Amino acid sequence: MKKAILFSLMTLSLFAREFFGKVPLVEKATIVHNSGSLLNSPELLHNILHYQTWGELFVYLQVHWFRILFFGITLGVLIVFFLHYIIIGPKKFSKDGKSFYVYSVFKRIIHWVAALAFVIIIPTGFMMIFGKEFGGGELVLTARYLHSIGTVIFIVSIIPMFLMWLIPMLPTFDDIKWIFIAGGYLTKKKVVVPAGEFNAGQKLWFWIAVLGGFVLIVSGAIMYFEDFDLTILRSLNMDQIDLLRVAAIVHNFLGMAVTALFITHLYMSLFAIKGSLGSMKNGYKHEDEVKYMHSSFYKKLTEKQAK
Ligand code: HEM
Fold first, then answer.
1. Are 154 and 121 a contacting pair, CB within 8 Å?
2. Which atom of ligand 1 is nearest to the CA of 289?
3. Mind spelling out the 3-state secondary structure of 67-105?
4. Ligand 1 centroid to residue 111 C-alpha, Å
5. End-to-end Cα distance, the chain
6. CA of 100 to the centre of ligand 1 (A)
7. Cβ atoms within 10 A of the Cβ of 110, count?
8. Ligand 1 neighbourhood includes 202 CB (under 6 angstroms)
9. CA 160, 280, 200, 115 torsion: positive or negative?
10. Which atom of ligand 1 is nearest to the CA of 158?
11. Average pLDDT score over residue span 123-150
């Protein structure tokens, strides 16, 4: 009996398609109308089909570029640093002499919270980009949840990190000189490097991590929560789904930049300068390292001590 009813319904729907031309892809009866929602409405269909601007660009980048760029940039950065380590090698500084207390307990805690966040966010981001290679399904879905948890941890650290390092991260003339000698990283010799408490490379990482991190949080939230009915979109002649497409494009490109700089940060802090991790554990930096790598800061510290 059930089979007969089912068969009749299917036949009827086929007849309906033939007679009335089109059968709606989304049954009106199944649509949940949230007030203000454009995603749970028939407009979704219109928006998906009406995709010439952002839709076309998003599909093009998603199909042809994002995966290859992520893979290429990551591999490229890893190869460059591997070669740097082999050809030039790490800088070694004497552990004798004075030490300067440069990272307070608060700064170190905030830093490690951000580090924990990134250690979760970056591999899970990769798992989503290369979802097919990871077999999709539950594993990639779990990666998506972990990616969101990592983001919440990052949100906790981003404002205090911004405030605690804002002033020393502002640009100075030392930064221009630092860029001209590539921070002294292209020579095996120990050279006196023009830099204050932080050098130009560290500043670049800070600004990309904090400001880029903020944009990543916002674009990620747009993709996670999906349903925004913003009047500003209409004034920009954008649909709700366009916002998702733009968020995905921005998130992917910024994600690549942050990933490349995060790998750079890890290389610099774990390999390029021997024992640099110590300062993030106990707060102290040895005199020899500060004298060479942060010469302006060293001058300031010694002048202060002499008074
Ligand atoms: C496992 C992950 C991480 C490790 C092992 C690590 C390690 C370090 C180390 C050793 C330093 C001190 C470098 C020095 O002063 O010579 C440092 C500094 C710093 N870290 Fe991290 N870090 C990690 C993740 C992060 C993340 C996720 C952020 C930002 C979101 C971050 C931002 C900074 C900043 C702004 C500084 C000061 C400037 C600099 O040295 O680059 N770090 N990190």
1. yes
2. 16
3. HHHHHHHHHHHHHHHHHHHHHCCCECCCCCCCEEECCCH
4. 7
5. 98
6. 17
7. 22
8. yes
9. negative
10. 30
11. 95
Comparing CA positions, the residue from 126, 140, 98 lying closest to residue 263 is: 126
Amino acid at 3: K
Give yes or no for a contact between 219 and 254, defined as CB atoms under 8 angstroms apart.
yes
Ligand 1 geometric centre to CA of 202 (Å): 8
Q: At what angle do helices 240-267 and 66-87 cross, to 10 degrees?
A: 10
269 close to ligand 1 (CB < 6 Angstrom)? yes
Q: Which of 30-39, 166-175, 179-188, 196-205 bottoms out in mean pLDDT, i.e. has the lowest?
A: 30-39
> For ligand 1, is residue 264 a contact (CB within 6 Å)?
no
- What token pair was written down for 272? 């390029």
DSSP states along 161-194: HHHHHTTTTS--HHHHHHHHTGGGTT-SS-----
Do the beta carbons of residue 116 and residue 179 sit within 8 Å? Answer: no
Specify the ligand 1 atom closest to the Cα of 102: 15
Q: Which residue has the higher pLDDT, 60 or 227?
A: 60
pTM: 0.84
How many Å lie between the centroid of ligand 1 and the Cα of residue 277?
9
CB of 297 closer than 6 angstroms to any ligand 1 atom: no
pLDDT (tens digit per residue) in 235-250: 777 777 888 899 999 9
Portion of the chain with pLDDT greater than 70, in percent: 83
Q: Given the structure tokens 């839709």, which residue do they identify?
A: 55
Measure 221 CA to ligand 1 centroid, in angstroms: 25
Whole-angstrom distance, CA of residue 94 vs CA of residue 285: 11
How many angstroms separate the alpha carbon of residue 68 from the centre of ligand 1? 27
What type of residue sits at position 135?
A: G
Q: How many residues does the chain have?
A: 307
